[in-house]
Every structure is written in C-alpha cells, then in structure tokens.
Amino acid sequence: MSQTLTLTRPDDWHLHFRDGEQLRGTVPATAATFRRAIVMPNLTPPVTTAERALAYRQRIMAAAPAEADFEPLMVIYLTDATSPADIAEAAASGIVYGAKLYPAGATTNSDSGVRDPAAIYHLYEALEKHDLPLLLHGEVTESEIDIFDREKVFIDRYLNDIREKFPALRIVLEHVTTRDGIEFVQAHQRLTAATVTPQHLMMNRNDLLVGGVRPHNYCLPILKRREHQLAIQQAVLSGDSRFFLGTDSAPHAQDKKEAACGCAGCYSAPAALPLYATFFDQHNALDKLEAFASFFGPDFYRLPRNSDSVTLIRESWIIPAHVDVGGVTMVPWQAGIEVPWKMAD
Ligand code: DOR
Ligand code: ZN
User: Fold this and answer.
1) Is the N-terminal amide bond of 304 cis, ω within 30° of 0?
2) Strand, coil or helix: 104
3) 198 within some domain
C-alpha cells in the first residue's frame, strides 16, 4: 500500500473566500493546497463588474502568502441589470473567467440575482460570443417546488433550452447534486461540465437528518437521496473529464450555522484534498484523483495545467473542532473526523 501520493498541484474550480478580515483565514487555507481557484462573487454588494472583480482580486492577493504563487480566477455576478457590455468588459479584463447565475433568492447573498433565467438570453449570447463560461447555481426558487426537486426542475425548465440555443457556450453546472444533473452533463458534449463538492460525493441526506439535524452538513443545493450520491460517485469514478473538483467551501461563523435558522455552506477548505483523496481511496481509485483534481478543470477552462506538485501522506489526523477565520470562529466541515490522508508539509 503506497504511503505517499504526489500529484500535479490541483485547483479549486468553485470556492467562496468572503471578504475583509476573513480573507486572512480563507485565502491561506486554500492557497496551502490549490494554485488557483474560481472565486464566487456573492459578496454584499456582489461582484457585478470587471472593475469590482479587479478590486476584490487585489484584496485576495493581499491576503495570499507570498510564497504560494496563488492565482484567484475571478467571476462576475449576473443581475437583471447586467448588460452585454458588462460581459464584454469582463471578458476583455484578463482576470475574469466566468459569469455566475444565481436565481434570485436561491442561496446566500443571491438577492440581487436573476429573477427569470429565461429573460436573459441576451446575456447568454454575449457570454457565448466572448467565450466566457456560464457558471450555474442550477436551482429554481419558487416556494411551491420541493427543495429536493429544485435542481431537476431548473434543468427541465431552463437548462435544456439554454444548452440548445447556445451550442458554443461553455456551461458549468456547479456543485451537481442529482442523477438528473449528472445525466444532463453526460448527454452533452465537452462544453458542458459540472463541479463536484466533497460533501455531495461523500454524503447524502441521511447525513443531514438522521439522528438529529447536522447543521454543518447543510448546504445548497441540499444533500439528496443516496441514489443521487451514487450517480455522482459513479460519474467521478468513471474518469469522465466533464466532472472536476470544486469544493464550494463556504465559511459561515459557528453561531450562524448552529442557529434556529442556520446558514447554508460547508467550510471544507481546511481538509479538502485529504477528504477527496479519502473518497478515491475508499473506492480503490486513487489513480483517478489527479485528473479530477488537477487536469480536467484547467482543460475545460483552457488554462495550462499546473507545473508543480503536492504530496499527500497516508497518516491519520483529526480535523480540528474549530478554526479562526479572521477573528471569527468557524467549524470546518467534518470537524473531529479522523482522515487517513494528510497534506505533507
Ligand atoms: O451552501 C451554499 N453556500 N451554497 C451556495 O450556493 C452558497 C454558499 C455560500 O455562499 O454560503
Ligand atoms: Zn458556491
């Protein structure tokens, strides 16, 4: 049994850094493992333009350890007021790598999001023209739609048509959670992809609800039934290049998670790669980890693969109960759990 595992340095293709003081905690936690990250724009106010993305990028860089060579890949946040000119500007900026569609009200800081995904075809057209990927929070928000069905309904109601009308548009179904999402991606060509979080790979809704409510496993889109988890696992283990690593690490203060109305998001950055490695190891598929973590993402984004490497060692450790993130106490996802793989120093 191999005791070390060296792979090309991975990137995180979906991540929430937050802002201000918290960057002092979140940026080093990610930069310790990943060379690049697609940085979600759901701040208050949201990162809606190239100009705001550039300013946010500078704040992130100021928090990155000098030796890390870390590169944030910025994303603009689509609103009902976004114009094709905003997209042209973002594409020309050289620092923006995608545009995020949050249906209004779908999740944290999505109030300024798009009210009707069917009403912004002019923006999909601009994204296709400027070759900027569309990054989707693929859930409908209507109160009458069951929370467990929201991804499927989004695909049926909006995504099939967007895919068909804009064949050259690169689309990422972020944090895929259902068999329906997996099958949607598999049914299309290489311009359609999905990121996969550690929680949707390793857990299902029992981990959220059996034996008591587990607020630290609550995220959006919500964990689904086991059959959906199995579909995600099979897609990833098949080595299909359309499925790649995106942690969706999304820190919230401990008291905001452990509350009567707890926030959605799992702060997985402190243990992300060891957790993914554990999943692949449990399925005798460690040989598939490198492509998932380090090759498929840059290939999709048409960026060079990283040239340096990281090493994991087979040594068990326990994910800390708490971490300080810029003066705020957070509970990392899987706190207190023993993990058999560890990042080498
Ligand atoms: O669980 C989530 N947390 N899902 C999202 O879509 C947003 C994220 C956050 O920003 O906290
Ligand atoms: Zn996210």
Assistant:
1) no
2) coil
3) yes
- CA pair distance 335, 291, nearest whole angstrom: 27
Strands (E) in the chain, as ranges, are 4-8, 12-15, 36-39, 71-77, 96-101, 134-136, 171-173, 192-196, 243-245, 309-318, 323-325, 328-330, 338-343
324 as an active site residue: the answer is no
Contact (Cβ atoms closer than 8 angstroms) between residue 307 and residue 21: no
Q: Which atom of ligand 1 is nearest to the CA of 263?
A: 11
Provide the domain count of the chain. 1
Choice from 214, 219, 222 to test ligand 1 binding pocket (greatest atom count within 8 A of CB): 219
Which atom number of ligand 1 is nearest to the Cα of residue 264?
A: 1
Please list every protein residue whose CB sits less than 6 Å from any atom of ligand 1.
Answer: 16, 42, 107-108, 137, 219-220, 250, 264-265
Query: Cβ(274)–Cβ(312) under 8 Å?
Result: yes
Radius of gyration of the chain (CA): 19
The residue range of the domain holding 98 is: 11-305
What pLDDT, on a 0 to 100 scale, did the predictor assign at position 190? Answer: 82
As a dihedral over the C-alpha atoms of residue 69, residue 295, residue 98, residue 94, rounded to 10 degrees, the angle is 50
Tell me which ligand sits closest to the C-alpha of residue 110.
1
Low-confidence ranges of the chain (pLDDT < 50): none
Domain assignment of residue 257, yes or no: yes
342 inside domain: no
Q: How far apart are the CA of 266 and the centre of ligand 1, in A? A: 8
CATH number of the domain bearing residue 183: 3.20.20.140
Atom of ligand 1 nearest to the CA of 109: 10
Ligand 2 centre distance from Cα of residue 162 (Å): 21
Please check whether residue 267 lies inside any domain of the structure.
yes
Residues with Cβ–ion distance below 5 A, ligand 2: 248
pLDDT at 154: 98
Tokens of 340: 């058999």
With beta carbons less than 8 A apart as the criterion, state whether 100 and 76 touch. Answer: yes
Report the pLDDT value the prediction gives residue 155, as an integer from 0 to 100. 98
Q: What pLDDT sits at residue 98? A: 98
Report the separation in Å between the CA atom of 249 and the middle of ligand 2, taken as the mean of its atom positions: 7
